[in-house]
TrEMBL record:
GO terms for cellular component: cytoplasm. Keywords: Acyltransferase, Transferase. It comes from Piscinibacter gummiphilus. Pfam families: Acetyltransf_1 (PF00583). The keyword Glycoprotein does not apply. The keyword Acyltransferase applies. InterPro entries: Acyl_CoA_acyltransferase, GNAT_dom, NSI-like. This is GNAT family acetyltransferase. GO terms for molecular function: N-acetyltransferase activity. PROSITE patterns: GNAT (PS51186). It comes from the Bacteria.
Length: 149
């Protein structure tokens, strides 16, 4: 396996990147959406194996205070090879110097990220486009029942 790494946006096949997210499986992320979010991210990486996109990830960062790792995906054919660890390590290294590096994990994958030094946040909160779906998927806890605040 000969892997080629790049962070350059020129030459990215956005449809291929969209297909990677579907295959990983990390959901339906349209090519135009991915072009926008990767273009607005300070750090990113794309990994190719013999010209085929097999992994990608990005970090939305401000250069000093906060870097948020997200959209880390590995093709099923390359999962279990350590490539996901390499992508996360690459983005964490690029994010060094920020006061905090954050991410949210697929429920059940927290032990994977602990290996990089990530700890669970007790006060993290989020507003998602589809709150109910994210509660059902385990990303959010609906702790608003029975409260007046």
């Amino acid at each position: 396996m000969t892997l080629a790494w790049t962070d350059a946006l020129d030459g990215v096949d956005w449809d291929e990147l969209s297909a990677l997210y579907k295959a990983a499986p990390l959901g339906d992320k349209p090519a135009a959406h991915l072009r926008m979010v990767f273009s607005n991210s300070l750090y990113r990486c794309f990994v190719h194996d013999e010209g085929r996109l097999v992994a990608a990830g990005r970090a939305l960062a401000d250069g000093g205070d906060c870097s948020y790792l997200c959209d880390i995906a590995v093709m099923p054919s390359h999962q279990g090879t350590g490539l996901g660890k390499q992508v996360v390590a690459h983005l964490v290294e690029r994010s060094r110097g920020h006061r905090k590096i954050i991410l949210y994990a697929v429920p059940g994958r927290e032990p994977f990220y602990r290996k990089f030094g990530f700890l669970r946040m007790k006060t993290a909160m989020a507003i998602f486009e589809n709150q109910r779906q994210q509660v059902a998927r385990g990303y959010l806890e609906d702790d608003t029942r029975g409260t007046d605040e």
